[in-house]
Structure formats: C-alpha cells, structure tokens
Amino acid sequence: MPVLYSPEWVAAFNAAVADLDVSSVDAGPSLAVTDGGFRVAQVVHDVPGAQETRETGEIRVVLALADGRLAMGLEPADGPTNDPVNVTLSLSYEDAAALSRGEVEPAALIGTGRVRVRGDLSVLVAGQALLAAAAPRLAELQAATTY
Length: 147
Description:
Layout: H1 7-17, H2 30-33, E1 38-45, H3 50-53, E2 59-66, E3 69-74, E4 87-92, H4 93-101, H5 106-111, E5 116-119, H6 121-144
Parallel strand pairs: 1-4
Antiparallel strand pairs: 1-2, 2-3, 4-5
Helix pairs in contact: 1-6
C-alpha cells in the first residue's frame, strides 16, 4: 500500500491518469491562457518521516498538464526546479491527507486559511476540474493509500 506522496504513490497516480482525455474536460478559461498547460505546486509541511530525509520536514509535489497529459511529480529534496509554476498551495500533511481521503473540500480549507494560495486561482480551478474528472480512475489508489 503506497504512502501518500511517496514515489510509489506518485507513480501509481500517473499510471491511473496516463490515458485521461483532458480535451473532454471543461477546465475553464485558464487552459487557453496558459497555452493548454499549467503547473500547480503543493508544498506539504509536517510530513511524517520527512524529517529523516529532509531538514525542512516538507515535500513539494507538482501537478502538471503538458502536451495533453496530466502528471504529478516530486520536486528534488534540494529544492524546486527552475520550471515555473502557475499557482502554489501550502498546507499541512494532515490537511493534504484529509483532501486525499475526500473528508474536506478544498474551498473550506482555503476559506479558513489552512491552505495558503499564491498565484493564478483560475489555474487552481482548472486543476481541480481535471482531478474531479480523474476521480473514478483514482478511486482504487485512494482506497489503497496509507497516511
């Protein structure tokens, strides 16, 4: 059972969405603005076990849409790449896990300040639309994920 945001979990996520037809998803006007692609970074704090491998105790996960494909990746431990992101979310591992399990809506966490957002909110909306479309494909991974 893969641990949320582990390399195995990210690989399973990518396998599940590999053939997702993103052209059939109404992701809003932000896709036109970003030439059909975007990058959403999620900085997750207080990750269990992360202190053993990273001094900061955080991980950075990037959801990207490029060339009609949705994919997730982990940024390297020594810092983010030079690839620009359109929007960055910052949240605790506890809140990220609750989102993954479907226990809380993203808007609720943003509204209470538990998720900090920097960047283009329309890109965030597009990312959520694509994740919602991918949800049936991710159900098995969600059920198998450990936290």
